[in-house]
Structure formats: C-alpha cells, structure tokens
C-alpha cells in the first residue's frame, strides 16, 4: 500500500482501482484520465505522452527527481530545476575525462593500477617490472624506414664519432670505421677505408677515422 500511495501522488485525475485476482497473482489497474497504469507482480506499465516516475523527497536537502521517457529515450529529470540531468541511454561522455562523473582520467587509472600510464615505458624495457620476453619481438616485426642521409666531413688525420643509431655507410677513400670494446682505449677496424656497410653505434664507441692527407666526405643513411 505504501507503494500505491506514492503512485497516487504522481498521477493526476480521478483514480479507479480495479483488482483482479488470478491464482496468487494480483493485477491492479489505475485509471488516470485517459491513461492507464498496470501494476503487476513483475512490472509497472505506464502509458501516456512523456510518462515518468517522480521521487519527491521531503527530508532536509531532499531532491525532486525522476525517470521519464522523452522522445524515445529514458532520462533522469530534475523537476525542481525543470531540466534533464542526463540521458540514461547516451551518457558515456559523463564518464570520460572532464565529464560530470569522469572515470577515464589518468589520475584515477594510475591510482587503480599502481603506476603512471603515461610514463611507464621503462617497465617494458630490459630489467623492467614488465620487461618484454627475449623472444617477444622479431626483426621482421619492426617497421624499418630510411631517414635523411647526412654527409660527414672528417678532416685529414682526424676522427669523428658516429651518433647513436643504425646506419648504411659509404666511406671516403681514406676513411674507415672503427669501434672500441673498452670505451676508447682500444680501437678495432670494422669497415675498411673506401668501402661501405652497416654500422650500429652507441654514440660513443664507433667512429670515422680519416687517415688521408686531405679532408674527406663519408655518407651515413640512418635506418629508423
């Protein structure tokens, strides 16, 4: 009866209650003007233009809100403000970053998983908490493109360290590529003067060495 009294406050017009009993199930039909409300054990059926169920609280700080059908969609409606609170069937944007009920922001995600999503690459690096397995990546899976070729001029009798990266190199007639296995104490021949090949440099221990009497150009094409 408490539920029916609440509905009586929601519906306008004279109400006619017709009780039908079928076995243990009870059906109540409320006639409200031109519209009928069916109340059964399993459901409440309200028929009409923009029908709604209204919950008007009477306690301190109470709300006056409800659920209504409007233009084919269900909405939460604020009767005191006479405005929609949200569309129940299209409210995903409320949970996006900046929304009224945002969930998908980096702070929430970072707190939930225990690390920073936008700065966690080190976790997947060698020795990281979630390091890639040794056999996780094959060379064929890496997209390889050429960068912009650079000309490196090495003065006579001088050297030039090759920047970190992977390169195709074409050497001057008297310029060779050398590498150091001990951080610069010892230098070993990698590619003879005047030839070409593939160079992998760590940015410190691979160099061009011009042993000629004049300046020479060599060419480095980065593989990215």
What labels would you give this structure?
2 helices; 224 residues; Jelly Rolls; four-stranded antiparallel beta sheet; mainly beta
Protein topology:
Blueprint: H1 2-10, E1 15-22, E2 25-32, E3 35-39, E4 44-46, E5 52-56, E6 64-70, E7 73-78, E8 83-87, H2 106-113, E9 150-154, E10 159-161, E11 165-170, E12 175-179, E13 188-191, E14 196-201, E15 206-210, E16 216-222
Antiparallel strand pairs: 1-2, 2-3, 3-4, 5-6, 6-7, 7-8, 9-16, 10-15, 11-14, 11-16, 12-13, 12-15
Helix content: under 10%
How large a portion of the residues is in β-strands, by DSSP E? Answer: 35-45%
**Nearest-angstrom radius of gyration?**
38 Å
The number of strands is: 16
Read across the widest sheet, the strand sequence of neighbours is 1-2-3-4
Q: What series of H and E elements makes up the topology?
A: HEEEEEEEEHEEEEEEEE
The CATH architecture of the domain at 150-222 comes to Sandwich
Task: Explain briefly what this protein structure is.
With 224 residues, the protein is mainly β. Among the domains are: 2-46, no CATH class; 150-222, Jelly Rolls.
């Amino acid at each position: 009866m408490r539920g029916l009294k609440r509905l009586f406050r929601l519906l306008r017009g004279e109400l006619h209650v017709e009780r039908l009993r079928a076995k243990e199930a009870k059906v109540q039909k409320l006639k409200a003007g031109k519209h009928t409300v069916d109340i059964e054990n399993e459901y409440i059926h309200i028929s009409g233009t923009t029908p709604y169920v209204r919950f008007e609280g009477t306690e301190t700080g109470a709300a006056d809100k409800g659920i209504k059908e409007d233009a084919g969609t269900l909405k939460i409606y604020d009767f005191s403000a006479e405005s929609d609170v949200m569309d129940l069937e299209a409210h995903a944007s409320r949970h996006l970053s900046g929304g009224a009920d945002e969930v998908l922001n980096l702070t929430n995600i970072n707190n939930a998983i225990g690390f920073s999503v936008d700065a966690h690459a080190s976790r997947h690096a060698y020795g990281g908490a979630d390091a890639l397995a040794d056999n996780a990546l094959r060379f064929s899976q890496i997209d390889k493109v050429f960068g912009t070729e650079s000309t490196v001029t090495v003065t006579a009798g001088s050297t030039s360290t090759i920047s970190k990266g992977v390169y195709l190199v074409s050497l001057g007639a008297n310029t060779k590529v050398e590498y150091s296995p001990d951080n610069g104490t010892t230098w070993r021949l990698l590619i003879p003067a005047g030839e070409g090949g593939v160079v992998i440099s760590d940015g410190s221990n691979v160099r061009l060495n011009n042993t000629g009497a004049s300046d020479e150009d060599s060419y480095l094409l980065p593989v990215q």
